[in-house]
Write a structure and sequence with these properties.
The protein is α/β, with parallel strands linked by helices. The chain is 48% helix and 19% strand. One of its GO terms (biological process) is fatty acid metabolic process.
């Protein structure tokens, strides 16, 4: 897979590059539309994450975007056009939100870590996309917001990812005011990992992906899955689950190899099993 297209006459919705062994860079490519998440874009992203998740040559994924905006969220022009449908858009809106939620969950379910490389503004479902990624590096000039309240459409689905990444009071402030959040504040809030000069966003995201790609792919997949699973559990249940995950992990070949390599003071040779 190198690109996903809406039609053969259009520019690809997504570009895929492999700048380092084990690293895939997936780039949103609707800059003229502010990288809005049209239904076609949602479907392309969902398919891309499924394909990359199953690709044994990929260990980490960077999600980037072309243009000055990372993503403005749902395609409001597309949504508004369906007001003319016989049901005033009800069926389309239901389908669009369902597909968006499925795509976001595909990122979480993907066994490979996904790192957002945020070069510009991320709003509404675009902010949700950043929050959903496992890690995020942003330009120090980037901004984030959930402005649905300003147009009478509360950012309810972005709220799911946002409230799982930042404190409740801060999430509610973003959701109720729709105000822009600076990159520096996004770091403090826990929405992104770090803010860097714009020219360093993609290189640093790729470097971080490369660092992760050097680890055991099996161990990383086990850890990512366990992280999200335990986060939804009560404390005692989370500890019981995590303890069993560690036992199962200990029985893998890569854990045996990794511990042996550490004790033997040699580099490990990962096999992914």
């Amino acid at each position: 897979m190198t690109a996903a297209k809406a039609t053969s006459a259009e520019e690809p919705l997504l570009n895929l590059e492999r700048p380092r062994p084990g690293v895939a860079v997936l780039t949103l490519n609707r800059p003229a539309a502010r990288n809005a998440l049209s239904v076609a874009m949602l479907d392309a992203l969902h398919k891309a994450f499924a394909a990359l998740g199953a690709d044994t040559t990929v260990a980490a994924i960077v999600l980037a975007a072309n243009g000055p905006v990372f993503s403005s969220g749902h395609d409001l022009k597309e949504l508004t056009a369906h007001r003319a449908d016989a049901d005033k858009g009800l069926a389309f809106y239901s389908e669009a939100m369902t597909r968006c939620s499925a795509m976001m969950q595909a990122i979480v379910a993907c066994p490979k870590p996904v790192i957002a490389a945020v070069q510009g503004t991320a709003t509404a479902a675009g902010c949700q996309l950043v929050a959903t990624c496992d890690l995020a590096i942003a330009a120090d000039s980037a901004q984030f917001c959930t402005p649905g309240v300003n147009i009478g459409l509360f950012c309810s689905t972005p709220m799911v990812a946002l409230s799982r990444n930042v404190g409740r009071k801060r999430a509610m402030e973003m959701l109720l005011t729709g105000d822009m959040l600076s990159a520096a504040d996004a770091v403090e809030y826990g929405l992104i990992n770090r803010a860097v000069p714009a020219a360093e966003v993609l290189p640093q995201a790729i470097a971080l992906a490369e660092t992760i790609a050097a680890k055991s792919p099996l161990t990383v997949a086990i850890g990512k899955r366990a992280f999200y699973a335990q986060a939804e559990m009560p404390l005692s249940e989370a500890y019981a689950y995590a303890a069993q995950v560690m036992v199962d992990n200990m029985m893998t070949r890569d854990a045996e190899e990794g511990i042996g390599a550490f004790l033997g003071k040699r580099p490990p040779e990962w096999k992914g099993r």
